[in-house]
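Try it yourself: sequence plus adenosine monophosphate, in.
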Amino acid sequence: MQVIETIGDFRRARAAFGRLGLVPTMGYLHEGHLSLVRQARATCGAVAVSIFVNPTQFGPQEDFATYPRDTERDMRLLRSAPTDLVFVPTVSTMYPQGFASLVEVAGVTEVLEGAARPGHFRGVATVVCKLLNIVQPTHAFFGQKDAQQVVVIQTMVRDLNLPTEVVVGPTVREPDGLAMSSRNTYLSPPERQAATVLYRALVAAQQRYAQGVREGEAMRQTMHQVLDREPLARTDYVSVADPRTLQELDAVGDQGALLSMAVFIGTTRLIDALLLSEP
Ligand code: AMP
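Structure, out:
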């Protein structure tokens, strides 16, 4: 496994590979990341992982400074994954003095996480575009947990004709349903218990759908009711949206629906999502 910090060295190392899968991450790796690494290896035969806590996707009041970091542990996990190339650039490598270009995806970035976190997806699209240009992977792997991010990246790759295939991996969950996330480490033991409410709310709405309910508002209400019963939870938003446009649905039709939510558990903001497709 080669661990590389600079763009020039990375480009030289990358040249030894043909098909290459990239898994972009912010580190503090867990089984969700590792499942994408395995999927990348199975698809491409060779895997690159980037670890970069990207300052431009954090708002001024957000957790950039305190975001969990443990490079040694990450390297151990990646070595046994296994991984071929690890790209660990510094902030000044990615954003040198004079950096002035941003990638703005309109429309799908204006709702949900984009509305709650202004500028977040500009930071995400910009850094992912840069990583795709540096790594030049044939395939790039993203988790379904960050469902809106997937739509934003797919839109950018399509619109800018980037020569990388976007592959989406399923959400990996703890045994009690909590979606794995580096931010779960912020939760106290009682908060960790309470955090299962996101998945319980998603499953409750999914069950109503399975029972034949199609009204978006009824499913949003079901999610609110489950979330409201958890004293440590404060709902930021719940959504039943078109999986492509991310616009809220009055009724779920042939397009299916993306159920998603952002919920504060104490001061920790968690997101989760579940894709409904026609039964
Ligand atoms: P992050 O390090 O949180 O930026 O995540 C890096 C990549 O891993 C993104 O594509 C995420 O969607 C994906 N990811 C994070 N958590 C999970 C999970 N629980 N299951 C599957 N993919 C995940």
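One thing you can check immediately is this: The chain has a mean pLDDT of 97.
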